[in-house]
Amino acid sequence: MLTTLDHIVVAVRDLDAASATYTALLGRAPSWRGEHPGWGTANTLFRLSNTYLELLGVRGAGAMAERIDAHLAEHGEGPYALAFGTPDAGRAAEALRANGLPAPDPLDGSGRDRASGADRRWRNVFVPPADTRGVVMFAIEHRSPPELLPPAAATAGDASAVDGVDHVVIMTADAEAGIALYRDRLGLRLAFDRTFEQRGVRLLFFRIGGVTVELAAPLGGSATTEDRFWGISWRVPDVDAAQARLAAAGFDVSAVRPGHKAGTRVCTVRRETHGVATLVIQPVQMASHS
User: Fold this and answer.
1) Is this prediction's pTM over 0.85?
2) Which residues make beta-bridge pairs with 79?
């Protein structure tokens, strides 16, 4: 049904400024600068090894522009949506409904690159946020050749440029409800479920297409009943080189430290990230070769 975390959507107020920020943060040039005819939105895409980042902003009038404006007014800039890849949007909608999610029939979508005029087409299945604990998510079936969205070219050394996404973080007040949604209804594999008493949190890792969707549930509970898409962890081959590059570019970045997972090394980018809690991680398999 769902095979990948196809892309991550970040809502921004100033698309040009955010595009410059993420070109510097990722150490990569955009793969695509597009617009959505009739939707009132425009985007910048960075295709990485295992997913892509979409920066989404308002550039006119339309139903999607209204939703983004409302989100920005209520929550500010930051993570907006998770898009899960599927080879067949129609069958994905049927499977989601069979699993208890009221998914509508697929909608056709298209985007046009502002520089080249190239068109990309897809079909989306939007699931009502009321049924996904407040997190915007949808399934997407691409209907254009993948080469229309080329890999984001490195603007920095390959060792310090972001290679892919290690994990995304969802803050939840109800871990059991999270399992019911991500494992039982969406079909993601629950790979890790552990309580850390000293940290006051229960962590759940759901795996899909080489990316982890991490749910963090505070042990004392939460005042909110909705989940919140909170942060992104970017994978790099050499975290020391990445930290030095980010500091030189003017980011407020922490020193490198050991990660919670044995063998990993990480640093935190505190700003400017346009509202995204941001971690840079050198995974175990990469750390072993440094």
Assistant:
1) yes
2) 10
